[in-house]
Amino acid sequence: MKKISLLFFLVMSAISFSQEYEVTGKVIDETTKEPLEASTVYAESIQDSTMVSYTISDQTGNFVLDLNSAQEKLNLFITYNGYTPVKKVITLSKKSIALGEIALALQAEQLEGVSVVGERVPIKISKDTLEFNANSFKTRPDANVEDVLKKLPGVEVDTDGKITVNGKEVNKVLVNGQVFFSDDPKVATKSLPKEIIDKIQISDTKSKTQEFTGDDGDGETKTINITIKKDKNKGYMGRASLGYGTDERYQVNGLLNYFKDKERISFIASSNNINNAGFSFDEIYDMVGNTRGGYDIANSNGLINNYGRGITTSSTIGASYANAQKDAYELSANYFFAYSDSYNDQKTSRENLLPEGSFFTNSVSRFDGSTNSNSGSADLEFDIDETLRVSIEPSLNVTRANSMDTSNTTSTNVDGELSNSNDVQTLDDGLQRNFSNSLNIIKKLDTLGKFVRVTFSNNNSKNENESNFQSTREIFGDDASVESVNQFTTTNNRNDTYEIGVSYRQPLGNEFFLDFGYGYEDMKQRNENDVLDFNENTSSYDNFNDALSTDFEFSNTQQTPSLGIRRDGEKWRWRVGADYALTDINNDDYLHEGTFERSYENLLLNASSSYRFNQNMRFRINYRTNIQVPSVGQLQPVININNPLNIRQGNPDLDVSKTHRLSLNFNNYNWRERTGLFLYAGGEIQDDKVVSVTTTDENFLRTTTFTNVNGNYNAYLGFGYSKQIKKDTTYTVKLNFHPNINYNKDVSFNNGQELISKRFSVSPRISTTFNYLELVEIEPGYNISYNNTKYNIDRFDDIEFISHTASLRTTTYWPGNVVWGNDINYNYNGNVSDDFDKDALFWNMSLGYQFFKKKATFKVLAYDLLNQNNNVSRSTGADYIQDYQSTVLTQYFMASFSYKFDQFGGKAPGRRRR
Fold it and tell me: Which residues, by range, are in coiled-coil regions (predicted)?
């Protein structure tokens, strides 16, 4: 209690002695007297050069720097790219300090003092890139990249490691401009320590063509590039951990990285049975299953598939290599092997809505499965000269998988009387092979902005599978019956897709461009499924089932000429274009009367526009149409009895679906107030959407086929607001508020009547993060989700339910080397049926001790401390209401040891330069 009181006293004292000040001025060019927009102005402590505050000048060169400091004097720096920085000492003797005009001179040469200042500039803004200096943002000594990102203005990192920048998702994290191990951003952000990081650069994600031609990205997603300090870019670093606990729970991780300028070699290994299908090195919250994000290399590379269900034991090993030579080549390659073993028990309770009534389906099932996979990929990029770039991206994956599914399903009427039941067991053993490759050739031509691009890609996959299907379906009532099925199926499927594209851009002046394009895609699918019924007389599977077997070849050929015009202005950018899609599909059925041909022609319009008000504010609107060809299963008139309670059959007369999508985005960040605001809205309308047509008989047995229908649409609206409050170097508070609204209209058919459901949902979330002196971090959050579904049939009641989620995450790095973490989540689903758990308080706790200069950590972990973890949810559809519950990882306790090691330059491992 005394320690808590002392901590509270220190916090209150720091707040009391901090005073608020305002520094104003205008940054101009010394020669032209023009204002310098996006100049960086920052204040440092004179004693230890700790950054106190910073801001960015506006379009007129004016800036307002808010200070919260207990110090009497501070160093003030004014910097701009290509100009000599200005340093001033300001005395905090009055609340408002006006500096007037501050003239910066063009930098003739790189002076030593200027270089030192440049290394400390907290933030730089160029045309399309934000650059943060990692050392300018105070974190605890053992922080990783993710910890730094949480300190950056406008950057949010959620509890699963997902990164957003003012509402835009980060889909790529590079290290020295190259992919780090995999496409999962968490691989780099969770494994690289802050001490080796120099700069963090944030920009719009670009395609390979946009990178080479200098075009801007579309602004929909963001890329983070992490640069390594020069003195840390030669050497190695690694981490290893080992943990073991109750119920034989374990986790083992190892990571080794070797850096040498642009060359990197990495090795990774992981094994656990606590649902970390990938890899984690979070010092506090790792080894807590899939509730706190380890980075998921295995799943991101398609190596492990447990369908997101149950409990998985997995092992992964991998290696990665990257190298680059400026203006010559860039190479990255990786290889992974993964093994997984999963099991899951689940139950569902569904109310099925019919025009004349409803019935209930209850299901209990179990899944057991294992996979082992080998995956390799490479990305090779060659700059033949300054105008010609060739890139190749091959990828190969081989996966062996086997599984057993068992289920028992019963259907009852509204009075609880049993109508039918079905017991199913399915055994599968399969081998999947997939090879893909893409070739991209870009040639810049004589005029700026003029280029031609040729692309080629292929995707070749083969699936061989053996399956044993056994089911017993029983009908109750006056026409009682029992029907059993025992079948053995061999599958040999092949899918080959080839695409070629040519595009050409012709400048029409300084800002206008004309785009021509042509694309050709050829997809062929060969499907052979031999179904053999069990023969009681011979006790073998030798009765060929002609009705359920398949042998067909399906092809889909599409040609797409395109034309577009664009304007790339300094502030206003827009593009208008059209694609003309000519689609030919053909199905040759060698067993049934399922041969057909179809041809479709569709004009697809697209347009986009963005306006940049200033460096921090942007508005974007986008419209696009696309088509979706029905799948083979939806087209082919072959009976599918995988679910004997719902027999499915395709419709060869289906048309293609066309979707119209509209989206709007607005982003703004106020550097002075440290507030971010983003708004988004959009929706889509679907013409000729393929929907289910279901017929349900008196025994609640269903037969489903498909048709095209208009009238399906969805819309969404939301915004996000963030605020950062920083008091000197004492504490930081980050607030986030993010509500969103969704509306959907779905159309389906049942027993000859149209069913229309309209779903409306609102889901606001509020969260905050409080950090004091890097000793205490508190992260509370709350989310409420309201859902309402209305139906067009009067006898159906509106479905309304609310779910609540509250969370609290606390971490203390005090006293001394002790690290204490708590992760608490409370979920409440009050509307689920009585057979399901309505709420759960899920609490994980970790207590660690760091030693050997914080290179080593010993930790004890309590997972699901209160033993209440569950996975319960409610959902609604066009004709059903469903409650669901499945297996989750439950309470265990684990002790672990982790160790970090490194050697850079001539430094000995584990020792720091003085």
Answer: none
